[in-house]
Design goal:
This protein has about 150 residues and is of the alpha+beta class. The chain has 2 domains: about 100 residues, PH-domain like (Roll); about 40 residues. It is about 35% helix and about 30% strand. The strands form 2 sheets. The chain has a 4-stranded antiparallel sheet, with helices on one face. A 4-stranded mixed sheet has the order 7-6-5-8, with helices on one face. Helix 1 packs antiparallel against helix 2. The longest helix has 20 residues. Keywords: Membrane, Transmembrane, Transmembrane helix. This is DUF5673 domain-containing protein. It comes from Candidatus Vogelbacteria bacterium RIFOXYD1_FULL_51_18.
Length: about 150
């Protein structure tokens, strides 16, 4: 009974963005150029970090998003097979600025501090807010620097 779903919807795993082959060539060339400059300044570790990070980002952005089921229960928020218990979340927020409509979970983890969950157009934000209110606090949505950078890319 404790894990009973209060809300459930199907969403895309992440926002897919179509990039042209020119974008991949440009991003790859920029990554290699930054790595070469790092090597020029005798910083091999930084060059390796840029190469691994750049090509990992390119591989991730080329991947098509999959559909996942998002469920909000009395224990926490389940996204696909991962459960984010309310005890591990410090707050939540709604990003309702057009064209987005998403629930933002703010985690106490250092690495993945914000979890973005797209909302269906028919999901009742007020009802979700009322269900989550006893478990964690709502805070106003403030885009992070990482949000702005990924939005630009």
């Amino acid at each position: 009974m404790d894990d009973q779903r209060a809300f459930s919807w199907v969403a895309m795993e992440h926002e897919g963005s179509e990039h042209s082959s020119d974008w991949y060539w440009g991003f790859g060339a920029t990554t290699i150029a930054v790595a070469i400059v790092s090597i020029f300044f005798s910083n091999l570790l930084l060059a390796l970090i840029f190469l691994l990070g750049g090509f990992s980002y390119m591989a991730f952005s080329a991947r098509k998003p999959e559909e996942v089921t998002v469920s909000i229960t009395n224990r926490g928020v389940r996204v696909g097979g991962a459960l984010y218990p309310f005890s591990d979340l410090s707050a939540y927020s709604f990003d309702l600025e057009p064209p987005r409509r998403r629930l933002v979970l703010i985690s106490s983890r250092a690495i993945v501090s914000h979890i973005y969950l797209p909302l269906d157009a028919d999901e009742d934000v007020a009802a979700i807010r009322a269900h989550m209110e006893p478990f964690i606090d709502e805070v106003p949505f403030m885009p992070t620097l990482a949000d702005r950078i990924t939005e630009y890319l």
